[in-house]
Amino acid sequence: MKKLAILGAGSWGLTLAWLTGGSHHNVWLWDRNPAKVEAMQRDRKVLFPVPVLLPQQLNLTASLAEAVQDADVILLVVTVSGTREVLHRLRDEIKLPKTVVLVNASKGIEFPSLKRMSEVFAEELPENPYAVLSGPTLALEILNGLPTACSIACQDLEIAERLQQDLSHDLFRLYSNTDVTGVELGGALKNIFAIASGYMKEKQLGDNAVGALITRGLAEMTRFSVGLGADQKTLYGMSGLGDLLATANSPLSRNFQVGARLARGESLSEILTDLKVVAEGVKTTHAVYELSRKIGLDTPIVDMVEMCLSGPFSEKMIVKSLMTRKLKSEQKETSQSG
Q1: Which residues pair with 216 in a beta bridge?
Q2: How far is CA 224 from CA 263, 288, 289, 335, in A?
Q3: Are 174 and 289 members of one domain?
Q4: Is residue 288 within 8 Å of 228, Cβ to Cβ?
Q5: Tens digits of per-residue pLDDT, 110-167?
Q6: Same domain, 51 and 103
């Protein structure tokens, strides 16, 4: 890899820049906010959304053209809702060469279009190779020197393996995969169950209940993803089970925080305004709720979270929704992908 461009200086974008900026000599970090870029250039220190000291070798710019010029790999780490606009600019303004590999590192489903990120990329830049990076990536843990592992998926295994080599780090182990649908849906759907887990933790419903939630959440996200063409095994990997366990158990997860604060009686609008960063699980819940009805799949926990986001919802309603469903065989259901 000759040049890596990272687009978006949010929590995950900054973390990826910190990981790669010290090991690759030609890494560029772009953000649309010139004032933010100027501040980073001045003292290399960022306090929000995560505290990080950026490597001196890392190049910083507010010019999208400068960031991607001669890049052979571009990591897009902007919000899901902002991704299409950036892709428009890469296509129409930059005239991005077809050889540039695009790697999506945002976790969600576009709303209200209900499109997966691979579908969005295919609509805007269909001839560029597409890959997705996803897994348990709590930024503060990585920035504190704690290790993690992720999946890097591309339909072209050779590209996936090349990215695996280029982006791996002492703290950041990558596993190659060709199941793009499974990897991107695993990363998107786990945010929904993190919201539910935060709610249940705050309401002190117990570790047993949270364990049951996570287990049933995995079955539900697997059933949904397989219904959209994913390989069931992918959901038991880093982008599925790995990410689910991390975010559903950690107050560092902004989606977990959303659920916990809803349980304390705060309104969704107040929470999202106060966070000042995007909690992708909110719109992903709306999207999966609509998609599950569109394709005829049963998603009881998603339905519960949708109700929680849409209005008042008590712990009694949660317990009732999870405990009074029709009794089933666990073995039979697991063999049928959830």
Answers
A1: none
A2: 26, 9, 11, 14
A3: no
A4: no
A5: 999 999 999 999 999 999 999 999 999 999 999 999 999 999 999 999 999 999 999 9
A6: yes
One domain for residues 122 and 8: yes
Q: Residues 6 or more apart from 331 whose CB is under 8 A from it?
A: none
Rounded distance, CA 108 to CA 315, Å? 26
Question: Is there a catalytic annotation at residue 190?
Answer: yes
C-alpha angle with apex 101: 161 to 68, nearest 5 degrees? 135
Query: Where residue 23 sits, what CATH number does that domain have?
Result: 3.40.50.720
CA nearest to 276, candidates 54, 36, 89: 36
CB 133 within 8 A of CB 195: no
Buried b (16+ CB within 10 A) or exposed e, 26-48: bbbbbbbeeeebeebeeeeebee
Number of domains present in the structure of the chain? 2
pTM of the model: 0.94
Single residue among 152, 178, 204 that ends a domain in this structure: 178
My answer on whether 200 and 326 are in the same domain is yes
Enclosing domain of residue 317: 182-335
Q: Are residues 160 and 300 in the same domain?
A: no
Tens of pLDDT, residues 212-229: 999 999 999 999 999 999
Count the Cβ atoms, other than its own, within 10 Å of residue 127.
10
Which of 107, 190, 201, 203 does the annotation list as catalytic? 190
